[in-house]
C-alpha cells in the first residue's frame, strides 16, 4: 500500500470563553473529508486526514499545542484555523517558518489581512471592519441615526474595527458621544455610556465580554426600547443566555438587556440556491448535517460557521491537489506527499495554489483577491426580538450602489416607534400668559384712570383754599410718578424682550418711584422748613424750589442709571430652567427657558439705587416724624407719608424676598411684583388724595386761624 497521507492540522477553539464553536465544526469537516475522498479526482493516490488541537481561543495555548504537533513526525501539509482571530494572529506569525500555508474558516480580525505580519495566511471569513459599512448604512439610511457611541474590548482586533468605524462615522457626519475601551470588566465603561445618555452603541468584542456588557447594561439601566446595542453576528446563536456565574445576572435579566439588540455579520451560507463543491446545494448540505447521527442540538448554536467549516476543507484539498499537479508538471523531485517543513519551494507553490482557488462553497462564492482572502460577501442584519434572533434583511455589496433588502415584516419595533439616537429636545419659552398680562394691564389701566380723576380734581378745585394749601402742582408731579409706576407693568420681563425693553422697565420703575416719593417728601420738607424755622413763617417756599429739589433728586438717579447702562448695559439672556422638563411621547422632551434681562454689574448698580432710594425714604421718614405735630391737614401730609412708607417698605421687602425665592418662576414673579406695584401705587395715591377730596367735599376749615401749628424742633413748644 503506497498511499501517502495528506495531513491537515486544525486549530479549533473547542473550550474556553471567548468563542467556542470549534467543536461544532468537526462534523462539517468530517462531511467535507468524506465528500473529497468520494470524489476521487482530488489528491488521487493520497489519503487526506485531519487532526486537531483545542486552542481554547487562547493565543498562548494555540501556539504551544501547535508547536507540540509540529515537532512530531510525519509533517502536516497545511494548517487550518484558528476560528478565533487572536489564535490565528499568534499562530500565523510563526507557521510560515515551517513553510506551511494556513487557512482559517472563521477569523475575522482586520489585521489578519496584513501579508507582512501573516505571510502565508488565508481566511474565508469577511473581516469585521467591512461590517461597518452595514452599520453606517443602518444608521444613516435605514433609521436616520446621527449620534452613537462605541464600546470595544482592548484587543488589537477590536481596536482596528472600531477605528475603522470612527473614520467612517466621521465621513458620514455621525457624531460619537463617547468611545469606551475596556480590558476586563466593562461596568464603568457602560456606566459612562449611560452618563452620556447614549442610545446607539456599536460594540466590538468577544461574546463572553458581550455577556458582561449586557449584564452591566442591565445593572446601570442602559437597556430597553430606547437603547440599541449593536453586536457582531458570529456570536453563538443565543449568546446572551449562556450562563456565567461570574457576571452576576440571571437569564431573565440578560434577556431583558439583550432584547432589541442588532447583530451584523456576513451571510453565513450561499444565498444562491446553486450546486457547489461536493455536488450539493446549501439546503442539501444543511439537511445532511441536521440528520447526521453525530449532530447534536448544541451544534445549532454555531450553525452559521458550518458552511465555512465545510468549505475550508475543500479549499485546502483543492490547493494541495493543485500543488501536487504543479510539482509533477515541473518535474519536481518531490510530490506533495513528500513535503517536509524545510521545503520552502513546495510551501510557496501550495501558497500560490491556495490564492488561485475559486469555488462555489456552502458559504458562498469564494475566491481570494490579490494579496489576501477578504471576500466581498453579502451582509446580514439580525435583531434579537422576542428572545430570538430574527433575520431582518441583507446588505448587498454586489450592487452599485449597495442596497439593503428588507425581509418583509421581520422588523418589529416596540409600540411601532423607532428609537431615537438621542432625546428629541424641544425648547419652549415661558411667556406671561395672556390672561394674566391682560388682567395686570386692566388693573394698571384702572389705576391710571384713578390718577386722571385725582388730576382732574386738582385742576378743577385749583382755587379751593384746601387744594391750594396742599401744593397741587407738586401733587400733580406725584401723580405723574404714579402713572409711570402703572406703566412699568405694561413692559413684560420675558417673552420677546429686547435690551431696550429691559432698560425701559428699570428706568420707568426707578423714575416712577423717585418722582412719586421725592414729590411727596418735598412738600413735607416745605412744612418742616416753615415750622422748624420761625423766620420762615412769614416767608413762602415757592413751588419752583420744590420742583428744583425734585429735579435734583431725579437727575442724581438719572446719572446713576446712565452710568449703569454705559458701564454694564442690559442684555437679554436665555436661561434654561433645569427643573422644568416635560418628557413626552417617543423619547421627546420639552425643555423650558426664559429670556431675562441681565447686566453684569447689576449687583453694584442695583445696590447703589437701593441705597439712594433708601436714603430718600429715610429722609422722608425723618421729615414726616419731625412734622407729625403740624395739624394743618391741608398743609401737612406727614401721616399719609407714614402710611405710604409703611406700605412701600412692607411691599418692597415681601417683593424682594419673593424675587429671590421665585427666581425661576418668572410668571409668578411677574404676577406678584406687578400686583404689589399696582396695589402700592394705588394705596399711595389714595392715602394722599382721599383726605383732600374728603376735605373739599366736607368743606373742612383750613384757615390759619383755626389751626394749631407745632413742630418738634427739639427746643420745646413754639
Ligand atoms: N468565528 C468567530 C470569529 C471570531 C474571531 O475572529 O476571533
TrEMBL record:
Domain called G-protein coupled receptors family 3 profile: residue spans: 436-699
InterPro entries: ANF_lig-bd_rcpt (IPR001828), GPCR3_GABA-B (IPR002455), GPCR_3_C (IPR017978), Peripla_BP_I (IPR028082)
Topology with respect to the bilayer: Multi-pass membrane protein
Pfam families named in the record: 7tm_3, ANF_receptor
GO biological process, one term: gamma-aminobutyric acid signaling pathway
The keyword Thylakoid is assigned to this record: no
A Gene Ontology molecular function term of the record: G protein-coupled GABA receptor activity
Top-level taxon in the UniProt lineage: Eukaryota
Gene Ontology CC: G protein-coupled receptor heterodimeric complex
Alphabetic keyword roster: Cell membrane, G-protein coupled receptor, Glycoprotein, Membrane, Receptor, Signal, Transducer, Transmembrane, Transmembrane helix
TM annotation in the entry: 435-461, 473-491, 503-525, 546-567, 604-624, 644-662, 668-690
Location (main, coarse): membrane
Subcellular location: Cell membrane
Protein's recorded name: Gamma-aminobutyric acid type B receptor subunit 2
Taxonomic lineage of the native organism: Eukaryota, Metazoa, Spiralia, Lophotrochozoa, Mollusca
